[in-house]
Amino acid sequence: MSQLATITLVTIIAEGVLRERLLGELAQLGARGYTVGEVTGQGTSGVSANFWAGHQVRIEVLAMPAVADLIMDHLQAHYFDTYSVVAYLSEVRVARAEKYL
Predict the structure, then answer these.
(1) Is 98 exposed, middle or buried (0-12, 13-18, 19+ CB in 10 A)?
(2) pTM to 2 decimals?
């Protein structure tokens, strides 16, 4: 098996209208790349009409822990109180970790 390193996966689920804004901010915060997909789901506030219309996005970023923390702090300061945004961190093991430094 190839060498694996532990880094942080940041997962953000947000209103689709925030997609481009968030992607720009992630780059400014130090993210080296991302994956985006449209998602649907239900949370504590019920099912949003935007979820069923496909207007929610899941953004995933593999980052070093310091960058992941910056991202979470930024989301809390600018989005959690105003928008439908969920974010969480996971430790993951990846090959080619140098791509995320």
Answers:
(1) exposed
(2) 0.87
